[in-house]
Structure formats: structure tokens, C-alpha cells
Backbone:
């Protein structure tokens, strides 16, 4: 637990962070649950910090906040020769430069 999962793909969310914070802030039950189960009273600040850390990991200059993903393609659900996320997200998506060991 508490080991950073290295993402395969990283998406720039710098322009969406304020909206994300406002939306998550509307969920009082989320704050209460995180405080009671994990001792995270300030979950909005925790989200901001984790987004900043993923942006740092991405190695992309100008990215203040990012979200990381691990791509898992089930056999039969996607073509091996296509990266659908890259096609849809374009320049806000990068393959993470730091690989897992």
C-alpha cells in the first residue's frame, strides 16, 4: 500500500483542475468516508497534490496537473495496432517516460 503505481499513459488535466475540485467538493459523503476510513480530512488538497505529482512524473513542461492510467487491453476488445486513447485525446496524452522496474 501507498506505493506509487507508475502510469503507462498520462493526461494533462491542468485546464480542468478547478472544475474537478469544484465537482469533487460537492460530495460531502466522500469527504466524510475518506476522513473516517483513511484519515484524509482534506481530500481536495490530497487530489491536487497527487495530480501535481503525476504531472511531475510525466516529464512534460507546462503540465501543472495530470492523471495517470495503466492501459489494459482485453483480448478481443481492441485492435493491437491502434491506440484509441491517443486517437481521442491527442496532444494531452503522452506515454509515460518513466517505466516500472
Residues:
Amino acid at each position: 500500500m501507498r506505493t506509487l503505481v507508475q502510469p503507462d499513459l498520462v493526461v494533462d488535466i491542468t485546464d480542468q483542475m478547478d472544475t474537478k475540485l469544484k465537482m469533487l467538493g460537492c460530495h460531502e459523503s466522500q469527504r466524510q468516508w475518506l476522513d473516517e476510513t483513511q484519515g484524509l480530512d482534506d481530500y481536495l488538497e490530497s487530489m491536487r497534490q497527487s495530480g501535481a505529482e503525476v504531472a511531475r512524473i510525466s516529464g512534460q513542461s507546462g503540465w501543472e496537473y495530470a492523471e495517470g492510467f495503466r492501459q489494459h487491453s482485453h483480448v478481443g476488445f481492441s485492435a493491437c495496432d491502434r491506440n484509441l486513447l491517443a486517437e481521442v485525446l491527442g496532444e494531452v496524452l503522452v506515454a509515460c517516460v518513466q517505466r516500472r522496474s
About this structure: The first helix runs from residue 17 to 25.
